[in-house]
């Protein structure tokens, strides 16, 4: 498992409705276009964080864009239909309930720029929300299942941090106690881009391996829901076992 963080820049002033802490600003690099499908706790929080560091964000939910008017007004993001969120995007984030993944339109990600990474933040909550998904219950890692349904490679990230901590606890690189987030995926270049974005909004990164290894950060594992630093995250990933605990089974 690899660990590390990219360079970060100066703090970015907070905006209306954003947390008391400052955000980590992008250092003299080109701001990119990011499409976010899903505007719940994680999708909405990432909209705020990514806009705060200057990126162009198009955000969608499963309803009319007008339902996101408040979020758009608060952040300066553009509210769009889900089918348009990925158009010309340099990075796409899918952050929806696991059970709704099959409902995404075929080819919904195909309009992104060639090679643009796709992050999926989702978790399987069979008892709490999603009901039984046979393939996952039979041992397919959650993100592998998502990737197969989307027909696209994905990077698993942001699935194990509480949204309020994602909003409030990002700090500059080198700060003592900086939280580390695990990521998993098969495309090294995509993971570099995702890692840079994570670092940019104030978190260290631990490369947890391939998408097939992404079970190590699923609900019920030692790293899930924890605000560990790099070393503790590496240790927790190593301690994980693939068996689902009772709380996270259908």
How is this structure best summarized?
The chain has 250 residues and is of the alpha/beta class.
The description of the largest β-sheet is:
6 strands, parallel
Number of domains: 1
What portion of the residues fall into strands of 2 or more residues? 5-15%
Give the helix/strand class. Answer: alpha/beta
Tell me the strand order in the biggest sheet: 6-5-4-7-8-9
The stretches of 5 or more residues where confidence is low (pLDDT under 50) are 5-28
The helix-strand sequence is EEEEHEHEEEHHHEHEHEH
Give the overall shape, derived from the CA principal axes.
Answer: globular
Structural notes for this entry:
The model is unreliable at about 5-30 (pLDDT under 50). Helix 7 (about 190-200) links the parallel strand 10 and strand 11 (about 205). With about 250 residues, this protein is α/β, with parallel strands linked by helices. It is built from eight helices and eleven strands. The strands form three sheets. The chain has a six-stranded parallel sheet with strand order 6-5-4-7-8-9, covered by helices on one side. A three-stranded mixed sheet has the order 1-11-10, sandwiched between helices. It has a single domain (about 1-250), classed as 3-Layer(aba) Sandwich (Rossmann fold).
Key terms for this structure?
single chain; three-stranded mixed β-sheet; 14% strand; globular; Rossmann fold
Write the layout of secondary structure elements.
Blueprint: E1 2-4, E2 11-12, E3 23-24, E4 33-37, H1 41-52, E5 56-60, H2 69-75, E6 78-79, E7 91-94, E8 118-120, H3 126-130, H4 134-137, H5 142-150, E9 155-156, H6 163-168, E10 180-183, H7 188-200, E11 204-207, H8 230-239
Parallel strand pairs: 4-5, 4-7, 5-6, 7-8, 8-9, 10-11
Antiparallel strand pairs: 1-11, 2-3
